[in-house]
Specification:
Chain lengths: ~200, ~625
């Protein structure tokens, strides 16, 4: 089949704070791509790192082979962030002039910021950095949308909906529907679809 | 997921019995097997600890069934005493020990290495290098074990167990086996006689012969493979996730025509003929592995035995410093080391973009690990610290293994008073020792803590020791109703088994009462009562005192997403910087949900992440934090 990827492997980082549904987002995205016949390797950190720490999933999407579960420095193609400072953290290590960033704009303050020891950059500063260091970027108010839908945890799916709409990856609503019909409890599928659609509308 | 692939491999091998103690990154293997236990007719259990897990699995093997025991690296230490006897007695049905290790200690308090156990135990060691192999190699491990009649060790790492990739599944067998334990034969016949490690001379010799058989099989195993040119300038020898890093490093540097990779799936005993064949190819040998230089040492010993056949080698690895001696590797680290030796460029010189990235790195606030919003442990350590401060004798806590170990990680946090942290159960053993130092002038009160699952795993002998030897300690059980850190696996204190059946719960309080400890129970969210009880315990000398602090984990399925209280800060009452409390709630208490409004200079609750535990209301000197009970739906 002809390669549907602009770059092989395409490297996607999904990042956020422990408890935001990072692992679920990476599983759903990978599931959609595997169903289409791609090799997807996901590298994840969870466990202790879940406890309020930064979390990251690395997805290597390829039509040819399995890749290492860790993306080399400077080689992310797409960054999906559930929290803006985590987007910056990933850009600082995996960024390059061609990277595309989609970020939730809802802040989760690190303890050091709450205690007053550290500063959190203003949203203007965050946007300036995005504009300077990415090929394109978009801030999405995913948490607010998710809360309107009844549960802030759905912000991860809002972001997946937004990602699908960018058409950077060969995924769409039908693929998402299929994926959640396999892996999400029936009573939660409606809310997930609504979150996906709401995210798609933001792009 | 690598762990799902391992579970699938076991199912394809027709595993009958699986036992484990939870530990990151291994826990999902048993969870996946438990989910299909009924359908596939398996017996699956969460055992009290890893040693018991191996014993349960071994019994199945003795009865001719296939079995598996699963643990993280530290579990192999716990199981090692039985393992050292098991490998001498030998086994019957295929039995596989899966050790999931954590290079870089992403979810551990050490980056312990269990490959050396395979050498010490004189058993075969297998290491899958991708997800397909995680399944296939697991399946083959059962066949190998049954062929040589000894346990086989399969080692995974976090980047394999907790990484995911495509796997093509094979068939599931349909064989129904009856358990049959034969023991009427001679003592020297391990297949029909009693299963014991003596006579030692006979059994040890047999054990070593088994290893020789494994080595012969390894020589032809498809799990060892070479990729690269016929005459490489450098040979990389690697295993596990490091194979994927090595492959990527070679491709990043464009060295496919100059560098070869020998990937070993069978890493102990080393397939000697195979290694000699590839070591001959070049004089530059690079060993890519994580944690300790296990392969490097073994390959060097092998190379030293055949200088005439294979020539003089230069080795690059951990011993010469080509790779760091600690922490995990990644493609960049392998590429950097390889670039240096091959004299090729690895990174382009700093550009404007790279300089900008460094500027960005400087403005990102670090995100320290912390107890979750609503975590009972934050309240428990707050309580213990309050009692120790009131007591005034500079008491301290001996810690143990679980999420609550975080109270040892940052001593700058005033109420985190954990001062020792080692293996499971060691906190109470150490406390028992500290308490006996009074005859040498040591008179600080000693508190030990452990979680509910840890209590059953390894604390009981230490507690009995404290009681019997009259050690004056206050032992606090942080009972959050499950093995929380690894994902709420049930333990002996609960009425639920691994496969969801109702089982008898073993009560922690009753066990402590049976050894005549003084036992009290309290809710850590009740600051006043808990501190009072702790104070009374600290004042009462010469006894073993047990306080069970009972409150379910905020992330547990029964509690998650359900708030007991709505929490709000009453801005009229909060005096902010003017209060004199020095921002007790936000600067000291450190709950991610209790934040600081920079504009108003007052505390504010983040309603999205607040779990509604209500403990913060008890600590505000102005009573400015209001809790309103949420009606149960």
């Amino acid at each position: 089949m002809k390669n549907l990827l602009a770059k092989d492997p395409t490297n996607v980082v999904i990042t956020g704070v422990g408890g935001q549904g990072n692992v679920m987002a990476s599983r759903v995205l990978a599931g959609m791509l595997v169903a289409k016949g791609f090799y997807v390797t996901i590298g994840e950190t969870f466990g202790m790192s879940q406890r309020g720490g930064s979390v990251m999933s690395h997805l290597r999407i390829s039509q040819k082979s399995v890749w290492s579960p860790q993306i080399p420095l400077g080689q992310a193609d797409i960054i999906v962030a559930l929290e803006p400072s985590e987007a910056l953290r990933v850009i600082s290590r995996y960024g390059n002039p061609d990277v595309v960033v989609l970020s939730n704009c809802r802040v989760v303050y690190p303890i050091g910021v709450i205690t007053g020891d550290d500063d959190y950059p203003s949203m203007k500063k965050v946007k300036d950095i995005f504009d300077k260091l990415t090929a394109s970027n978009r801030l999405v108010d995913a948490t607010s949308i998710a809360m309107e839908l009844g549960n802030p945890i759905l912000s991860n799916i809002v972001m997946i909906g937004a990602l699908a709409k960018t058409a950077l990856l060969p995924i769409d609503r039908r693929a998402f529907e299929k994926e959640i019909s396999r892996n999400v409890a029936a009573d939660k599928r409606g809310a997930n679809l609504a979150a996906f659609d709401a995210g798609a509308k933001m792009v | 997921m690598g762990n799902e692939a391992i579970a699938r491999g076991a199912l394809e091998a027709g595993v009958n019995v699986a036992a484990a103690y939870p530990g990151t990154p291994s826990s999902e293997i048993i969870e996946n097997l438990a989910a299909v236990a009924k359908e596939r007719n398996l017996y699956v259990e969460w055992s009290t600890n890893e040693k018991v897990a191996v014993e349960v699995a071994a019994a199945a093997s003795f009865a001719g069934l296939r079995s598996m025991c699963v643990m993280k690296q530290n579990g192999v230490n716990v199981a090692s005493d039985f393992l050292l006897h098991l490998t001498a007695s030998g086994t019957r049905g295929g039995i596989v020990l899966v050790s999931c290790e954590d290079p870089g200690a992403l979810s551990s308090v050490n980056e312990g290495e269990s490959r050396y156990f395979a050498r010490m135990l004189e058993i075969p060691l297998l290491e899958p290098a991708d997800f397909q192999e995680a399944k296939d190699l697991t399946k083959w491990a059962f066949e190998l074990s049954e062929k040589i009649h000894n346990i086989v060790m399969l080692r995974s790492v976090t980047r394999m167990s907790h990484a995911s990739g495509n796997v093509i599944c094979g068939k599931l067998p349909n064989r129904i086996l009856q358990a049959r334990f034969v023991y009427d034969g001679s003592l020297t016949d391990p297949l029909t006689g009693p299963v014991i490690s003596t006579p030692v001379g006979v059994k040890h010799k047999l054990q070593q012969d088994k290893l020789k058989t494994a080595k012969e099989l390894f020589e032809k195993s498809p799990f060892n493979k070479y990729i690269g040119p016929k005459k490489p300038q450098l040979l990389m020898i690697t295993s596990s996730a490091c194979f994927l890093y090595s492959k990527e490093a070679v491709s990043m540097l464009g060295l496919q025509k100059r560098v070869g990779i020998l990937k070993l799936g069978c890493t102990w005993p080393l397939p000697e003929k195979l290694l000699k064949k590839y070591l001959r190819l070049t004089n530059k040998i690079m060993i890519v592995e994580e944690v300790l230089p296990f392969m490097e040492e073994n390959i060097k010993v092998l190379a030293a035995s055949y200088p005439k056949e294979i020539g003089v080698k230069t080795f690059y690895g951990k011993i010469d410093g080509a790779f760091p001696s600690v922490g995990e590797l990644n493609p960049d680290m392998v590429a950097e080391a390889l670039a240096k030796i091959m004299k090729v460029k690895y990174k382009t010189p700093p550009t404007v973009y790279a300089q900008e990235l460094r500027k960005v790195a400087a403005v990102i606030p670090p995100r320290e690990l912390t107890f979750c919003p609503g975590c009972p442990h934050r309240a428990s350590f707050w309580n213990i610290n309050a009692a120790l401060k009131l007591d005034g004798r500079e008491g301290f806590i001996c810690g143990d293994i679980g999420c609550y170990a975080m109270a040892a990680l940052n001593p700058a946090i005033g109420f985190h008073t954990v001062r020792t942290l080692h293996s499971m159960g060691s906190g109470t053993g150490l406390a028992s020792g500290f308490a006996k130092l009074d005859m040498f002038g040591f008179n600080k009160p000693v508190v030990s803590v452990c979680g509910d699952s840890t209590f059953y795993h390894a604390v009981i002998p230490a507690l009995i020791n404290a009681r019997h030897n009259k050690a004056d300690i206050t032992f606090v059980v942080l009972d959050n109703a499950g093995t929380a850190m690894t994902g709420f696996q049930p333990h002996p204190g609960l009425t639920l088994s691994a496969v969801g059946e109702t089982v008898p719960a073993v009560d922690i309080g009753k066990i402590c009462e049976a050894i005549e400890a003084k036992v009290e129970v309290s809710d850590p969210f009740d600051l006043e009562t808990t501190t009072k009880k702790l104070n009374a315990f600290l004042a009462e000398k010469g006894k073993l005192k047990v306080l069970i602090l009972r409150q379910i984990c905020a992330l547990s399925p029964e509690k998650k997403g359900k708030k007991q209280y709505e929490i709000k800060v009453n801005e009229e009452f909060c005096l902010g910087d003017e209060c004199g409390c020095n921002r007790l709630c936000t600067r000291i208490f450190r709950c991610p949900a209790l934040t600081w409004d920079e504009a108003k200079k007052k505390a504010v609750v983040d309603e999205v992440i607040c779990a509604g535990c209500g403990f913060c209301a008890a600590i505000c000197p102005q009573n400015a934090i209001l809790k309103t009970e949420v009606a149960a739906s």
